[in-house]
Amino acid sequence: MTKLSDQQVDIIARQVLRRIPSATSNDTASILSAPNNSPSQTLGVFAELDDAIRAARTAFEALNSLTLAKRDEIITNIRQRMLDNAEPLASAAHRETGLGRTEDKIIKNRLVANKTPGTESLQAEVQTGDGKRSC
Questions:
Q1: Where are the domains of the chain?
Q2: What is the pTM assigned to this prediction?
Q3: pLDDT tens for residues 17-38?
Q4: Total Cβ atoms within 10 A of residue 130
């Protein structure tokens, strides 16, 4: 593994910061559609912690208001994208950290995509004394 100098790390960090959109509001659409803005004075998307908390709350409320069928659709889509990109994501993680083996990371990515629980834990299920379901 190649060690980077402090100067090289600083250059890389500045390049990354130039790619992060600057934002001070909880307007998710503007964050996601923002062009390559110059880096803000902060290291994150939000200038203030309260802004990040408000955005997280808004996102939670939007997700929470969806039907289980819509949540299943979203989770299925995320799983499929993860499976489609398991190899490039594993390679990128290995390049970035220099840790582990790419082949193991591919297996881990696939495992996470297939085994992380979805909405099944949110669905109501009732069993009677004889083991039959009823509502």
A1: 15-65, 67-119
A2: 0.54
A3: 777 655 443 444 444 444 444 4
A4: 6
